Amino acid sequence: MAERVSLTLSLALPSHSSPTKMAAFGSAAASSRFIPSATRATVSLSSSSYLSIPSSSSSSSFSSLKCLRSSALISHLFLNQKRAGIRVSSRGYSAVSAPKSFASYPDQLKSAREDIKELLKTTFSHPILIRLGWHDAGTYNKNIEDWPQRGGANGSLRYEIELKHAANAGLVNALKLLQPIKDKYSGVTYADLFQLASATAVEEAGGPKIPMKYGRVDVSGPEQCPEEGRLPAAGPPSPADHLREVFYRMGLSDKEIVALSGAHTLGRSRPERSGWGKPETKYTKDGPGAPGGQSWTVKWLKFDNSYFKDIKEKRDEDLLVLPTDAVLFEDPSFKVYAEKYAEDQEAFFKDYAEAHAKLSNLGAKFDPLEGITIDDISPKAEKFVAAKYSSGKKELSESMKQKIRAEYQAVGGSPDKPLQSNYFLNIMIVIAVLAILTSLFGN
Description:
Blueprint: E1 4-9, E2 41-46, E3 86-89, E4 92-95, H1 106-123, H2 126-137, H3 160-163, H4 172-184, H5 190-204, H6 239-249, H7 254-261, E5 268-269, H8 271-274, E6 294-295, H9 306-313, H10 323-326, H11 332-343, H12 345-361, H13 398-410, H14 423-442
Antiparallel strand pairs: 1-2, 3-4, 5-6
Helix pairs in contact: 1-4, 1-5, 2-5, 7-11, 7-12, 9-11, 11-12
């Protein structure tokens, strides 16, 4: 059903007519108007988000969104950072004493993830949140070593100067959706929030679990945003060469290009905003969310491998096929993977999860360096079994097991963690050597 969601924020958010949903790494701008608000603004969003390609014939106008700057962390565990807040004015956002480097708290990340899940249930914004994470990370240039000049997942997309890039038209709507969550969990950086939302959206749409890590550091100002032109176009003259030029610059392979393209299984495009697709199809006329547009797949809010199947068959005129989609089955190298994913969803899920995780880390600066994991993935510890340290078939008595256990723990062992070597065998050897030496000296 075509529901709409009204979010009232106690912040000076610029209003927008409706969210623009675009294809991952779209290339051109779509028009969007903003009306400056006072200290409060009501953001009216359709209950669905889409992937679409922005139009090159229009440009975005940003009159009041200055910059969505990151608030800092309070001290926690091994982190010694000072707290900073977001000051709200009638013109937009400004940051107050943001630190140069800080990490997100695991507990806040977990809570933010749950809030994102609830947000997805009511807004169906999976596609645009995925695209937000992709576009923040997709500016990475492997040939530039310095951070943040190299681009990548650093939260720079929250600034007006980068939001105005043609490929990012409409992503301000994703920021509006996530800003209340950012305000609630000030310890979570924008860079982490964008990637958390993107991975969560994939998983909640039925896709694979993404092996994510967090702790990304935010850039501190708009002067650190990358120049325009680092993201792919949707309909370049030579699609295969263009995709390779852009994705190779990020350090990604042909397999990863094809796997990531599979995210077009979600979303739809609107011709009035992008110049691509039909105004309406039998699959989009009833929403959810604002009706209309053309999707790549029949079930455009379900993450599966139907994108590859539908692109390969090209039988349904109501489904969208862009030049960068069609080339996956035309280029010999791309075709190997596209054919594989069309036949094997499990293989697609595996490769997509790896590629998405890799993309989300591109150019990121982590604090701590090893990153933060919020999923319990450690293997179960091996429990102590005293019988392992006996010989022969005779079972040890309970009293002997307790004695061995006590000795085992006394030298650093644990009931749930075995020693690196067989301590008890070493004891037996030592006793035997001592007995031999005693016998020799006694004689």
